Write the structure tokens for this entry.
Amino acid sequence: MIGRLISPPAERHLLGLRPLSGPTPWLVAIMSFSILIIAAAGLAIANNAGLFARSVEARYSIEVPNGSARMPALVAALRARDDVMNVSSVPEAEMRADLRRWLGSAADNRDLPVPGLVSFDLEPTASLEPVRARVAAIEPLATIEAHETAIGPILSSLRTLQWVALALVVLLAGAAAAAIVLAARAALDTHRATIEILHGIGGTDDQITTLFQRKITADALVGSLAGALAASLILLMLAAGSTYLGELTGGAALGRGDLFLLAALPFVLTGLAAVVSRRAVLTRLGQTL
Amino acid sequence: MSSGGFYFLTGPSGAGKTSLLRLLYLAQRPTRGRIRLFGEELTDASREALPAFRRRIGVVFQDFRLVRHLSAFDNVALPLRISGVSEEEIEDPVREMLAWVGLADRSSARPATLSGGEQQRVAIARAVINRPDLLVADEPTGNVDSDMAKRLLHLFSSLNQLGTTVLVATHDIGLIRAIPGAELIRLEGGTMVDPTGALRNPPARGGVAS
């Protein structure tokens, strides 16, 4: 591909175009910038969703209505088990402090029933049923809820966002391809006279197409790299958590594989431009004699 | 037309000379009739097959049709480059051809800076650089002075003696008389006629075009 991209000196002036002239580099730069930002956001969301899901997949909460004098016994029983880890209870004072936001000083009324909450992690291979039986034996009114169930809608939303990001990347790539087709057709119209001369002296469609393909691909390469560079600066700021947006995304880190994928995108976009421009030019030339 | 012949095509404006030439150099397909060139039936030839035949034809257009972004040298070198000749092998013949048409010192000039006559000479140099089997020229001396016209005609004649079939469309009687052995084809209203009996040789079997 590189060999086809670099034209011999004699061919460089055939179309009379200066390198990077016309709108193609700018269009591709904008597309490249947008694609990289959206792809990075999609990957960060995917990573966060994965981390989030893994952190809660074995996490459970026990809720005891009206609080319970048996809370200490419940916590002790859980801590005594080998298949249960990271047991923590929410102190009643903390619960009342939370309630105070809505109820004011009424939250400190001792007659107000405050539920007791205990959270724990279950061994990944262990069954919840023995734990549920033990808890019921100590406090029959206690209910156990998996965190995964509670945050299911959030995870579902995050996964939807991932697909939306992917769809946007595909959509922008399609828009970039359409812009390349239009640029190729415009270039063909501009150089109709030169094409007729080349055809007239025995130039093949492949030779003529290569001239246009080289120009468009070189423009696309420079444009996509420039867009990627600008996007990288934004992503670095986000990753450093140095901006408001960075904080919003939690300064989400991208893995090595993610960075490799993002680094490949400008070249994928350039490859797309090379293929699409070639197809567009060959199709248009095929309509002539 | 027989292979190796020298022909003049003449006739009033609108008779169809340029259309006939366009059919000959494969720039358009006939709506009726057949095109047979170099012994091959090309009326319905595929697009992919045409470039190989076009490379065997040198064309001098009435409006020159030089690539305006290229120098005189690069315009003349274009058919060689299209044919895949290496850059090392291009330099000498192109310089020689430019010298022959009197443009050795204008090799780096762009068409826009050349006079009409100079552009015509570049166009002729480009048409013959490849030693084509068939040379088609549409009013090739219309923009050059009489001395240069004689030199160009001598070039065409030399090519013809080397085996190139030459067809020149012209109104210039002086030009026609300058090549005594040439045959005259006259078009009137799109029909080929021979009112003077100038076509001394009938079309040969296996000729260049029929």
Remarks:
- The beta strands of chain A are 59-64, 84-90, 116-122, 143-146.
- DSSP finds twelve helices and four strands in chain A.
